[in-house]
């Protein structure tokens, strides 16, 4: 094992917080007002991830409802299936 400690430095934390802040829509808008605390930023991140999860669930439900009303052999159904394939 190298002589380097596995502990993360303050500089690394600051860099990671800055990167995280750049990914959050609300934080990007506020960026000019200064950097948020790491604690506040982590709370915002959790909230944003939860909202994305709710949005995915809602879109999935809407897609399921749409597929249920469609003829499974229709061109539209085939397009949707092709978009969902990996």
Automatic annotation (TrEMBL):
<dbReference type="InterPro" id="IPR044293">
    <property type="entry name" value="PRE"/>
</dbReference>
<dbReference type="Pfam" id="PF23174">
    <property type="entry name" value="bHLH_ILI"/>
</dbReference>
<dbReference type="GO" id="GO:0040008">
    <property type="term" value="P:regulation of growth"/>
</dbReference>
<keyword id="KW-0804">Transcription</keyword>
<dbReference type="GO" id="GO:0046983">
    <property type="term" value="F:protein dimerization activity"/>
</dbReference>
<comment type="similarity">
    <text>Belongs to the bHLH protein family.</text>
</comment>
<protein>
    <submittedName>
        <fullName>(wild Malaysian banana) hypothetical protein</fullName>
    </submittedName>
</protein>
<keyword id="KW-0805">Transcription regulation</keyword>
<keyword id="KW-0341">Growth regulation</keyword>
<dbReference type="InterPro" id="IPR036638">
    <property type="entry name" value="HLH_DNA-bd_sf"/>
</dbReference>
<dbReference type="GO" id="GO:0006355">
    <property type="term" value="P:regulation of DNA-templated transcription"/>
</dbReference>
């Amino acid at each position: 094992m190298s002589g380097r400690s596995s502990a993360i430095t303050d500089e690394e934390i600051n860099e990671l917080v800055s990167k995280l802040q750049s990914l959050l829509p609300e934080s990007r808008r506020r960026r000019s007002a200064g950097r948020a605390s790491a604690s506040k930023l982590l709370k915002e991140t959790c909230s944003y991830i939860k909202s994305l999860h709710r949005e995915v669930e809602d879109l999935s439900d809407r897609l399921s409802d749409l597929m249920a009303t469609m003829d499974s052999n229709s061109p539209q159904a085939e397009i949707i299936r092709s978009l969902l394939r990996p």
